[in-house]
């Protein structure tokens, strides 16, 4: 029995996930807020701006700019817009779900975005829970892991995590997405999965910058390892399970984002390392670079929580205070010597 799924956001990731779910036999409606983009996709069967000319939309995939049509009788709603658009899209979804309430429908809400909301510092599942009351929905599941849209588009073998506090719901979502090239594992640590997903983008900007400046493999490994240390530190302080950070949405996503030319965060960092201005880099990218906004949120969050995040702070200085990259690297290296692990520090323990 096919499941009706509404995919909200027709950028690179939303389009590829909608295609995959259609391949898996589901009845999928891909919603874009742009009627012009929908008209072009219907005419060409492509989403060329985001995925190039090679990628073709599945014949059975419905594309629409009508949110009501996408949501009508959908049992799953997948949010794949950038973090800072999640709230406004959820606010458009809410009255439609309220109108459907009489039919007794309660869709599963899934999201695939990676960031922290500017201003509120909320994780994405928290933003969704803030807007969509629990009597309107079955629950919220996050899907996350090392997964560039460009590689999934060519059926490269890919593994993700489906995370929810409600394990049966995570298992349902796992089954919807699984196929011979896309494998999901479940996890109940939503905090760890969302924090790992958001903060790896910050470190990927740093990895790109090191590449742009000509640093070698030792330096990149140092950045990724110490980057993971600070991601884990803040995550555990927020209540995450430490093990999640050695999983797919921790080290897994950190590796792919810090090493792939597909990563918009890595590419932005690389361009900065080569001396381009941030405003030009973002203008030329034409796609979301989540790590730029997340760096600001994480920098403030670290201060509020009293967690040491020296790499994130250094990237903040480069992005928001115009600090020269080589100077912040020198400052990082000149900090006093420290133990690799502070085993006695309570902030490394969950409780
Ligand atoms: N690309 C990838 O490989 C992966 C991305 N992700 C995450 O998925 C999320 C989406 O990323 P991705 O698809 O790559 O982003 P893109 O930049 O490729 O596309 C973003 C899409 O969201 C739309 N959009 C932007 N603002 C709004 C809004 N206010 N209302 C409705 N639609 C809006 C854009 O429309 P328009 O064209 O009009 O601007 C565009 O269709 C991000 O959080 C990203 O980190 C996660 C895993 C992999
Ligand atoms: O999250 C991603 C891969 O897992 C995509 O990363 P970018 O947003 O840097 O392209």
Automatic annotation (TrEMBL):
Substrate binds at residues 114, 264-265. InterPro entries: 6-PGluconate_DH-like_C_sf, 6PGD_dom2, G3P_DH_NAD-dep, G3P_DH_NAD-dep_C, G3P_DH_NAD-dep_N, NAD(P)-bd_dom_sf. Residues 189-329 form the Glycerol-3-phosphate dehydrogenase NAD-dependent C-terminal domain. Sn-glycerol 3-phosphate binds at residues 114, 145, 147, 200, 253, 263-265. It is found in: Cytoplasm. Keywords: Cytoplasm, Lipid biosynthesis, Lipid metabolism, NAD, NADP, Nucleotide-binding, Oxidoreductase, Phospholipid biosynthesis, Phospholipid metabolism. One of its GO terms (biological process) is phospholipid biosynthetic process. The active site is at residue 200. Residues 4-167 form the Glycerol-3-phosphate dehydrogenase NAD-dependent N-terminal domain. Pathway: Membrane lipid metabolism; glycerophospholipid metabolism. SUPFAM superfamilies: 6-phosphogluconate dehydrogenase C-terminal domain-like, NAD(P)-binding Rossmann-fold domains. PROSITE patterns: NAD_G3PDH. One of its GO terms (molecular function) is glycerol-3-phosphate dehydrogenase [NAD(P)+] activity. NAD(+) binds at residues 9-14, 149, 264. It catalyses: sn-glycerol 3-phosphate + NADP(+) = dihydroxyacetone phosphate + NADPH + H(+); sn-glycerol 3-phosphate + NAD(+) = dihydroxyacetone phosphate + NADH + H(+). HAMAP family: NAD_Glyc3P_dehydrog. This is Glycerol-3-phosphate dehydrogenase [NAD(P)+]. It comes from Lacticaseibacillus zeae subsp. silagei.
